[in-house]
Design goal:
The protein has about 170 residues and is α+β, with helices and mostly antiparallel strands. It contains 3 helices and 13 strands, in the order βαββββαββαββββββ.
Amino acid sequence: MNMEFSNGAHWYAVYVRSRHEFKIFNRLTESGIETFLPVVERLSRWKDRKKLVSFPLFAGYLFVHISKDYNDILSVLKTHGVVRFLGIVPGEPEPVPDEQIAYLKKLVESKESLDPYPYLKEGQSVRIKRGPLTGVEGILVERAGKHLLVLSVDILRQGVSLKIEASEVERV
């Protein structure tokens, strides 16, 4: 997926207060900052009813699309509930590769059953070769006799898994 950014903006992962992802997403969006909060729906059961409830895919994290300008970074950090940017060097936000955000968006939009998955750095890279998720790349993993495509988000050291037939993927 090819994405162009005319203003030199990049995606950055932001760590936020626990259970405040939706509030902070709304605050950032209202202040004009492009924000992405990957959300999944799960069936929650109570004694008297069942209901589909939206949950953040990565609890405590969301993504912002800004330039690495001091004022842009400061406007995010000043937002009530934002804790810090993620990065290898403390205080230095690390960009998230555009492809990882594009693939995450495609997975979330597919409405498939997604589950957070432990971060993987090693493993076989594969690409889905047919269907609505054609072109999404990740790591093929086998668990309990089933194949999963795992998309890792490096900066979060987390990932997301999707059940898939091994025949639907090709080696990258």
